[in-house]
Model the fold of this input.
Amino acid sequence: MAERMTEIPSATYRLQLNRNFTFRDAAAIVPYLSALGISHCYLSPYLRARPESSHGYDVIDHNALNPEIGTPEEYEHLINELHRHGMGQIADIVPNHMGVMGSDNSWWLDVLENGEASDFAEFFDIDWDPIKDELQGKVLIPILADQYGNELETGKLKLVFDHERGEFGIFYFQHRFPVDPAEYPRILGPHSEKQEKFDPNHEGFLELQSISTAFGHLPGRRGLSVEQRAERNREKEVQKRRLAAVFTRSPEIQEFITRNLELYNGEVEDPRSFDLLHELIKTQAYRLAQWRVAADDINYRRFFDINDLAALRQENEVVFQNTHRFTLALVAQGKVDGLRIDHPDGLYDPAAYFRELHDQFTIALADQNQKFYIVAEKILTGREKLREGWPVNGTTGYEFSNLVNGLFVAQNAAERMDRTYRSFSGTLPDFADLVYSCKKLILKVGLASELNVLANLLTRIALANRHTCDFTLNSFRSALAEIISCFPVYRTYITREDVSTEDRRYVQQAVAAGKKRSNAADLSVFDFIQRVLLQEFNGSEPEFYKRAICRFAMKFQQVTAAVMAKGLEDTAFYRYHRLTSLNDVGGNPGKFGTTVEEFHRANLERARLWPHSMLSSSTHDSKRSEDVRARINALSEMPPSWRLHLNRWSDWNRSKKSRIEGGMAPSRNDEYLLYQTLVGMWPAEPLDDAGWIKFCERIEQYMLKAAREAKEHTSWANTNQAYETALSSFVTGILDRSCRNLFLSDFSNFHRQVARIGAFNSLSQCLLKMTSPGVPDIYQGTELPDFSLVDPDNRRPVDYALRQELLKGLQSRDQGPDSLTAIRALIRSPESPALKLFLSWKILSLRRANRGLFQYGSYVPLNVTGSNARHVVAFARKHEERSLVIAVPRLCESLLGDGRETLCEEQLWKDTSVELTDSTVRCFHDLFTGACVTVEGGAASRRIPLSGVLQSFPVVVLLSEAFSKPTRE
Done:
């Protein structure tokens, strides 16, 4: 058994594993990560996923490693390398869904073959009794590129025989759809006069007839007892083996079956020749359909609206055991030290899931007296709190990312930024109204089938009671759409046993808002839905009625989460561009920035309730990396200059637009997004021609993705080629440096100031993340300035050779006689990649050496006084005798006026000081320079002047005397 690491990470480092970055590659950088100060590698999903998966969230086998990422031996090598460096591993697991379609998910294929008779039928969240009669007992498979009849008659659906397994399947390109064995007799009978002439007494044909008869006697797919299901699943495999055997030994049977396949697969010139295959397909446990049908008719729950990710029913104990067995074994063996749980809001009962997970880990670690680290990918909105009853260590940190980002947004500029956005784009919607309309759109075009399922369930509930039986299906659809679109959070967590005060408030708020927006003649339907959602019984209802209400309420919660994600994150965020640095997962672009008081209050609450919650600033789900946001935030500090340049650029670039049906393209709103994207992404160093072409391609690809996500002028479902061509042409046109381009020159000059502010924002944000209560996470590569956009841009390869070389250089200079000279050289270039790396290394090393301080230390907000007090955030961390003082600058545009290049000037901070609450500490030592910093003032008023410490380094980390003084040769 491997040695288990410390239960609470000091700091995690997220790695995105795929076929281009494997276990072997991860093992190779473990020494670097250890030297950086990381305690745990935080790995993206590495269980067996779809071939060529770039992310690993499309798992097809929860009980095997992904062979594209590495072998079991290579995985063992990675674990051994981590343990050799005193490090552990956090694994990302995906309990909510699996990758389906293709031909490699054995559970899903078994369901398609056997329908409700499958041993895995209850693994997936399938509605076997949907409202459409033609789908009774079937799964809708929306996979076809064109209408079913067209795909059939052009020969794209092929009946194939696997002679080694004795199985028939229908193929559509790489997708395999098994044929129900009970329907094999259709294929195995004679279908032509030529076949009738075969000798009926031939041994092979007698055997084939026997096999066909046995297949024909298999129990059906619906309404089976446990015994009948077992009989069917056992007997079909026996007959498949017989069929494979007779095919192998008999050339005549091979010829017979091959001819039958030819007849079934038809001839493109003769549409009637496909009748046999059509009739066979109609008998299956699935219905093949064009992909567009999914929006209205799909009857299996998906991950959001992605058809090839089918939801799992973790509330089923058998499903839980089968999807967690391998992971639990890795935990018991000491190879996994913590888990990230992906998208728990998609689960039927997240709280019950986490309790089961906790209980299973307790059993797995029973002989090790060890707790386990678990974080939930839970997105909190507004004032929503993580449920205290969940046995987890916290969230993955989206709320902290938005909290800390907001500190660098100038709140007093909100109205000026409003006016600029409105005058340029011609619109400034109320963000809450925009989210509402986007969610309504999603329910109409993307998740209409989920709405249909809910309305169908609710109709059945209503019909069971004479007081509600007059409500119609349409009235339920309409009312549910309004309530879901007005829902203030991703979901509630109501169960049969509990309706919390918080959940009651959310439901009542949504129902009241939905009722207000509705134009229905009879609004009492809203009151009925509220009673159902809150499970308000009068005590006389039969048990089946209560169960139905509970099931509806639980499934409703799963739908609100999906609609919020698609409506807010994947639609509204791509339409509302006032300040795009605020448009990130868990964020609220309608709220302009964070006050220092809000930041302290949130940190105090986290220290009290979730002291080990993860703190992120960039993730694989981020719309923009932390450094891109840090630059865009700078625009809030310079609205007049931003507006002046926007108008100038728009005039110069007008000729690059195209006239299409509906007007000029791209839209003013998309143009506004483009300029902000360039602000965040502009290269830090001049690029050669090849580098510039790659940069332009990244911008173009992002803008196309953003336009499709916005669903205004084009979309993933209905691409507007004319608009997309115009958009691409505009991007390449304004970025063309092969000729005289006024825009490029002017933008580059403007960006110098933005980049300088962004660099200081980035350093401050980095330090706040690494010293606030919680566990800091570094997304791969972001220990250096990283200017990436949403995936797949943020999954580009990371240059670890460069990072290792820079770190070794920093470490050698830090211990050398000229260390202070080296530091001064760093701070003269705040945009230098080495400065962020130096800061990260120093504070991560401090964290690792002082786990108690950062894991259990108190958090003390510190007051800042003086003329530049509003430009500083300061706090202390205390544990036992050790005390740490942190101070960072913010909103520094005005401080960098008059051409000033750096914040590290004594005169700049003149009378600004941090007031201390601890009267026992006489002096501190600067983490970065080793200098002694004396506390000024008397017992009643003790302070640290910032003029001395901020002239030495752009951020402040001071260690009390209880720490060993940093030494320098």
About this structure: The domain at 106-303 is CATH 3.30.1590.10 (Maltooligosyl trehalose synthase, domain 2).
